[in-house]
Amino acid sequence: MHNAALHPESRILLGSWRALNGLEGEKLTEAIRGRDASTLVDRLFMAQRVGEGVFTFRTVGKELKVWTGRDLREHEISSIFHGPDKILVRALLESAVATPGPALARIAAFGAGTGQRTDIEMVFLPLLDKGHTDRILGLFQPLSANITVSRPILRFSLTALLPPDPSTPIKPALRVIS
User: Fold this and answer.
1) Higher pLDDT, 107 or 39
2) How far apart are CA 172 and CA 45, in angstroms?
3) HEC profile of the chain
4) For 58-68, what is each residue's pLDDT tens digit?
5) Dihedral, CA atoms, 32, 35, 41, 47, nearest 10 degrees?
6) What average pLDDT does range 45-65 have in this prediction?
7) Cβ(167)–Cβ(99) below 8 Å
8) How confident is the model at residue 163 (pLDDT cuts 50, 70, 90)?
9) Do 135 and 172 touch, CB atoms closer than 8 A?
10) How many other C-beta atoms can be found within 10 angstroms of the C-beta atom of residue 53?
11) Cis ω on the peptide bond leading into residue 8 (within 30° of 0)?
């Protein structure tokens, strides 16, 4: 699943997660440690599992607030989607913590203007917290560098789901520290 990410910053975050879990070679692990991830901060979020398939935002980067037009803290992640997409995103998140492993969603974001659309990736990485993987570190990553869609976005629609690879079940080494 690591190579399925389209955006270079999504691949950096996935590579870091894999390196911290001992799934990358030593040379790649050292290369990832030297990378500056400060550009990701405004698009990161953390979510907490509060029930089966129900994950609420705990922290939200400021860019996600701009895209949605609201502060999403304490809102369920699936609340930004409609209809069957809500169920699909819940299942994807549940699979990320159950495996545990990284999951990815590709999303079409529609603005207010006629024909306004841009593509987004959301990366979901399970975190270890007190022996459980009930938290997820996420990245909201627009795929285009030149975004012309108006914000806040009127609708987010799933275009692809990439669940974690069950052939490499691991215990996430990335931990939540408060």
Assistant:
1) 107
2) 17
3) CHHHCCCHHHHHHHHHHHHHCCCCCHHHHHHHHCCCCHHHHHHEEEEEEEECCEEEEEEECHHHHHHHCCCCCCCEHHHHCCCHHHHHHHHHHHHHHHCCCCEEEEEEEECCCCCCEEEEEEEEEEEEECCEEEEEEEEEEECCCCCCCCCCCCEEEEEEEECCCCCCCCCCCCECCC
4) 999 999 999 99
5) 10
6) 94
7) no
8) very high
9) no
10) 19
11) no
Q: How far apart are CA 178 and CA 176, in angstroms?
A: 7
The amino acid at 67: W
The answer to whether 80 and 156 have CB atoms below 8 angstroms apart is yes
Q: What average pLDDT is seen over the chain?
A: 85
Q: What is the pTM of this model?
A: 0.85
